[in-house]
Amino acid sequence: MSKPEAAHDPRPAAVDGTGGSRAAAALQRLVGAAPCQGREYWRTLEELADSAAFRELVEREFPAQASEWADPVARREFLVLMGASLALAGFGGCSPAPAPPQKIVPYVRPPEQGVPGKPLFFATAMTLGGVASGILVESHTGRPTKIEGNPDHPASLGATDRFAQASVLGLYDPDRSQSVVYRGRVRSWGDAVVALRGALADQRGKRGAGLRVVTETVTSPTLARQIGALLDAYPEAKWHQYEPVGRAMARRGALLAFDRDVHAVYRMENAERILSLGADFLDCGPGQLRYAREFADRRRVSSAADSAAHAMNRLYVVESAPTGTGAKADHRLPLRAGAIRGFAQALAEQLGVSVAAGAAVPEHAARWLGPLARDLEEHRGRCLVIPGRAQPAVVHALAHAMNQTLGGVGATVYYTRPVPERAVDEIESLRELVADMDQGRVELLLILGGNPAFSAPADFEFAARLGRVPLRVHLGLYVDETARLCDWHIPETHYLEAWSDARAYDGTATIQQPLIAPLYGGKSVHELLAALGDSPERPGDELVRGTWRGSWADGPGSALPESEFEAFWKKSLHDGVVAGTAFPPLEVTLRGAALAAELARDPAAAPPADSLEIVFEPDATVYDGRFANNGWLQELPKPITKLTWDNAALMSPATAAELGVGYEPGSIGSVAWSDVIELEYGGRSLRAPVWVVPGHADGSITLHLGYGRSAAGHVGTGAGFNAYAIRSSEQPWFESGLSVRKTGERYPLACTQLHHLMHGRDLVRSATMAEYTAGSAAPGRARAEQPLETPSLYPAYEYPRYRWGMAIDLTSCTGCSACIVACQAENNIPIVGKDQVSRGREMHWLRVDSYYAGAPDNPEIYFQPVPCMHCENAPCELVCPVAATVHSDEGLNDMIYNRCVGTRYCSNNCPYKVRRFNFLQYADYKTPSLKLLYNPDVSVRSRGVMEKCTYCVQRINDARMRAEKDNRAKVERDGTWLPPIYDGEVLTACQAACPTQAIVFGDMNDPASAVARMKSQPLNYGLLAELNTRPRTTYLAALRNPNPEIERL
Amino acid sequence: MAQETPQTKMHGAAGRTPPDTPPVITPGYTFGSMTDKVSSIVLTRPTSARWYIGFAIASSLFLVLAVSIGYLLAVGVGIWGVNIPVAWGFAITNFVWWIGIGHAGTLISAILLLLHQEWRTSINRFAEAMTIFAVACAGLFPLLHLGRPWFFFYLLPYPNTMGLWPQFRSPLVWDVFAVFTYLTVSLLFWYAGMIPDLATLRDRSQRRAGRVVYGILAMGWRGSARHWRRYEMAYLLLAGLATPLVVSVHTVVSFDFAVAQLPGWHSTIFPPYFVAGAIFSGFAMVLTLAIPLRALYGLEDFITTRHLQNMGKIMLTTGFMVSYGYMIEAFMAWYSDNRFEQYVQLNRALGPYWPMYWSLIACNVLAPQLLWFKRMRTSALALFIVAILVNVGMWLERYVIVVTSLHRDFLPSSWGMYSGTIWDWATFIGSIGMFVMLFLLFIRFLPMIAIFEMRSLLPQAELGTEPRGEAKPCP
Asked: Which residues of A touch B406 (CB under 8 A)?
């Protein structure tokens, strides 16, 4: 449904009589006014005269006490006022932002469907790298508090990733920029508009020759339309798009293979054999949520009998650093990123693609080629080759060729136009801009989002060259590295504050609607561009509506008559999807000859054995650096390394041994003291701590981007090491020629899991598909250690009503950790900072353990999400001296915070160590904006109390109330009548977020419930069940489907 | 009944002493000289400079404790090194250590009394004082280590509007009862035993303040036969009451660990092993205090080599019991075929805390072996060194039990490390300061040796009269 949200353009009132009465004086001054440089626009005679009275008038008219800033005495007063207004913002929960200037009406008629205490959900979308994923935002009396996936959106299917979950914290981030700034001084929006319109007026005469616009990847039809209009007005202006984690290689590969830029969309549901050439398609977009769902659906096996009919897919992954996708692989081949090309070429040759023979393939990889090629060929039309974003154009082209040869095109992959509007090669685009800046051809630079001063390749020296642009304007959420180098900075609206639109990986468009008025008075990029264009005061919703109503957009709304547009608009907003906007498949023809020629021109050489390789990857939590100030993401353990708050130079154990570096655990908590190395590459150097990752390719060092921010905010500034400092535009993803020097220094890394071996304990149980179907290993390598029913003097409790339980499918879990952030958002879990994490005091109620099995050079990697087990015989309950943790009559192990005195005995006696203690005052009671973030249904815990997973008891209670209120037909259960809570009605936060539906929650009393059916599978087992804790959270053993031919190697 | 008083029993026992055993008290004292010697420490001898220096150091450390506690209450237990998985650290280690030390006093007073070990008389008073102060130190830690110490009363069974009792299945509730009971009985026992001596001080005090204060504390003791009869009955009853507590307190403390299912804690040997360890450490602490005291105040005549020898023998014996505990823990880990137990044992010996483990073995198992030799048992210096080592070793033992069991339990994913922060150390050292400060106050203001009981040990007491004609063996 649409949220009636007004736009917040300050609309200057008409100049009143006080100004007009001074017209005579103004005219006097007019005569003496200095001649203007270029064309300037003036609104009134007074402005032209620039009288003090007029300036005052203008300044008073616009919000923020701008003039006060220049006056030292008044500035102090202003600061006091600002502090007070911040504090007041905390009280006015319903409208935290300054009231919109348009209308103020009493709260007589509440908003549509608004019931105090009941959240509303609004559909919108979040973009990452421009590509949208549909979400539903939970709003409590006007405050967005939680993100859920939009089940109707093709890229979400109800799931979310960790970035979307954490974005709601980004909205309330007190470090967001809060005022227009001109060279370090606070100015008003009106000042900025006047100045920018003036500067643009200068450009009009030159047809915009000095105007450049830089954006991130744009999929928004509205933004593309607006920039298009700007370019029409200034024909010689240029629009550049830069994205540090972009699709340049994919574009080049498509151009090589098909002579046109296309975007590959995969159909995982049809793929029985999948080969990833360095692609982390399960965890890193675009479309990763949907791919993960479809991938997991093809791996789920409910019973041994079922498995014969249901062919489980098989995943081969060739990659350098282990990723979530690599961890799910049935066969994972660690290979230097630079060697993947040779592997791809040799495989293509085996598959019959006409390529030059004799590509260099390392010996251990060459053994794979035959069995892999045979397996793919046996599944012709049902197999898929996916090239990694970082792989060069030829690998993309080879993948296209292999998919074509194997009959995958149309079945497992189809091609569409690129998702971005006016897709460009983002590195070349920025190169062009940098060249122009260098030669002084840029006079006015509009940086609309993004942080190129931080994230541009080092050889562009973007920050230095930015200084040669006379007028630099930055629109962004933060006063970041780029904003500090710009003349003007304009605070941008968060995506939850503004109208916009965006496209998903398959082209499906979503209208983004605001959930809250801009907290800090920001402007959306649409509003800024409108203010610079012909219609300066059009609010965001009109701009977006205008796009969809007009003829420019290719959505179906344009074809409808005006009267029906409103219905279409409302439905699109409500659904979070504009129906029918997915891109149609394109017919493309492979240019085999061009590919062969390119391969011959640049033969695949073996990477020099003596030279180290450097690999750049987007970070799992801060991505390209944009989330550096998001505490939830900073503190989220990275899926495999479990590092928090830092990045590190990842390398294999063998490489680390060769370099004589490593890390060792410190004496407290889970801190690791790591050797700092100096990485020298391409004439630039960087210091970074070492992290040893089993399964990493030898001779290769992986650095994650996005850390080492110098102006991120209180949370992110100074965390980690800036990999961009040595990234080059020629080889943005990987290259050989790295040299490494030990510095002798050590650096503490806060890691939440230092031990990844199971020590012979049956923690993650696993089996191969063959073992499972043969019945030789019913849950995996389990020993018979499950005394679920032991004799007791006491009669067992019957649980007459509900008996809640959870089952987690380890086959499906990709370790993406969206569940952890979802849990954090839902349950008001505080962040504690690097120091406290390194002391072993992180507060996550849910963690995802990762374990290695097998040889350290290429281990199997398993993920195990561990929430509270809600044990039937809970060891924690027995030892609490004050009965602060007790069993509910529905089987939950409840925590009573206000009874807890904090002996911590429960944690000591918990074999799963899922309890978390507030050693200090972790919850933020002070920051006003963060108060708005809290979920009102969950207590905020104080210092000195224990807390842990509750199975989202607030959601259970909500469903119970709904069931009672709806007066549902009561069912009898063991003599009591109760209104039923439907199976699937209660989704825990982790379950709702999970892309692969690995987590299932429900009532075990209902034999038909999903959870009961999962628990009845032979794969089901209880973690440490031999302790007779009788956990309610159980696991389905991980199944793998290895290729017997490769197994035998 | 009257003839069966402890005094007559002790008196009889002294007669049965083998001829080669050194006497409990160096011969040559009269009732008067004995009383003079002990009471003069409190009443007439000038306070020595050494006492002032000692008191200055101890009270400075006590201030450290006060600051540590203030900061702790202001900020939270996060100032300590505790974490998940090691949610208990120094505080519980110190608690068990102090409680263990507190065992010797009652053991000496009550059990040895009932067992007619008359040599206990010279040391029981200050051993009891040591018990009280050690239990006071111990009692601090469980309170302070709470996340919200201001709600400690939730652990007490009191009627309240919430209609809630403590959760009686939790060993921590048992702990509250055990420690409170022990403190109460020890305090009563100590005070009751001091009443005749307080009367002596009252009578001998030269100053009015002394007469008033000691007079109030003496509760009107006049030394009549009726007083003596009731006193002896009460003392015997208290001894009987205190005796089971010696065993029960540390048994209950050991339940804090044994009831948990954590490998390294979950063990049936814990109650006897903890009690033996407590007596072991208690005697070590008595020696640690007695040896300097007797040198500083010239009490070699009262606290003789025989006392030291006997205490050395008890340490040797209890040291063996403790060593047996270590052995059985290791054996059961192997015998149980429980991989978690086995891992804990191996990890203690070979894991990151191996220096702690092997130091504790050296201190608690190897060092007491010196006491096989009579030369060592009779050398005050050697005994002092062994006693200090045992004190250190017993602290390490508790540290190893608490920390190494927790830091690597069932799921390797949750394993972590623990070490004390500066605040952990400040609180621990501050508690030692508080203990020493209280002890120094005790020896300055109260008779550290039971005067009347010592008099009963003199040969004259057997005769009933003094050769040189002193009136009677009462004040």
From this structure: 908
B9: left (phi over 0), alpha (psi -120 to 50) or beta: alpha
Q: Which residues pair with A333 in a beta bridge?
A: A318
Contact with chain B for residue A849, Cβ under 8 A: yes
Question: What DSSP string describes A414-444?
Answer: EEES-SSTT---HHHHHHHHHHHHHTT--SE
Choose among B164, B259, B416: nearest Cβ to A669. Answer: B416
The string of pLDDT tens digits covering residues B10-60 is 443 444 445 556 666 777 777 777 787 777 777 777 888 888 999 999 999
- With a CB cutoff of 8 Å and minimum separation 6, the contacts of B7 are B232, B453, B456, B461
**CA–CA min distance A831, chain B (Å):** 15
How does pLDDT run across A209-234, given as a tens digit for each residue? 899 999 999 999 999 989 999 999 99
| A87 in contact with chain B, both atoms CB, cutoff 8 A | no
Q: Which residue of A has its CA nearest to B410?
A: A911
pLDDT (tens digit, 9 = 90+) per residue, A914-948?
Answer: 999 999 999 988 888 888 999 999 999 999 999 99
Q: How many beta-carbon pairs below 8 A join chains A and B? A: 187
CA distance linking residue B355 with residue A550, whole number of Å: 78
Going by their DSSP bridges, the two strands A766-768 and A1038-1040 should be labelled as: parallel
Nearest CA in chain B to A839: B83
B contacts of A905 (beta carbons < 8 Å): 87-88, 170, 172, 256, 260
Contacts of A756 in chain B (CB under 8 A): 412-413
The DSSP secondary-structure symbol of B2 reads G
CA-to-CA distance for A53 and A46, rounded, in angstroms? 9
Of A665, A761, A919, which has the smallest distance from its Cβ to B417's Cβ?
A665
Cα A96 from chain centroid?
26
What's the complex ipTM?
0.89
User: Left, alpha or beta for A35 (phi > 0: left; psi -120 to 50: alpha)?
Assistant: beta
Burial A696-727 (b: 16+ CB within 10 A, else e): bbbbbbbbbbbbbbebbbebbeebbbbbbbbb
Q: Is the preceding peptide bond at A286 cis, omega within 30 degrees of 0?
A: yes
Total H helices, total E strands in chain A: 35, 40
Are residues B414 and A878, on separate chains, in Cβ contact within 8 Å? no
Q: Taking CA atoms, what residue in A is nearest to B261?
A: A909
Interface contact flag, B87 A760, Cβ < 8 Å: no
DSSP per-residue string spanning A173-216? -TTS--SEEETTEEE-HHHHHHHHHHHHHHHHHTTTTTEEEEES
Residue B406 near residue B44, CB atoms below 8 Å: no
- A853 and A694 Cβ atoms separated by less than 8 Å: no
Q: Which residues from A are below 8 Å from B412, CB to CB?
A: 755-759, 761, 763, 851
Token digits of residue A76: 């102090």
- Measured CA to CA, the distance from residue A348 to residue A399 in angstroms comes to 8
Distance separating alpha carbons of residues A194 and B45, to the nearest angstrom: 93
Angle value at C-alpha A982, between A979 and A986, nearest 5 degrees: 110
CA angle A926, A169, A493 (to 5 degrees): 105
> Residues of A with CB below 8 A from B167's CB?
880-883
- Per-residue confidence band for A783, with pLDDT thresholds at 50, 70 and 90: very low
Query: Chain B contact for A757, CB < 8 A?
Result: yes
- What is the distance between the alpha carbons of residues A754 and B414, in angstroms, rounded to a whole number? 8
- Tokens 């020296």 appear where? A461
Query: What secondary structure does DSSP assign to A820-866, as a single string?
Result: HHHHHHHTTPPP-HHHHHHTT----SSEEEEEEES-TTS-EEEEEEE
Tokens describing residue A221? 């039809």
A1024 contacts: CB under 8 Å, gap ≥ 6: A763, A911, A912, A1031, B410, B411
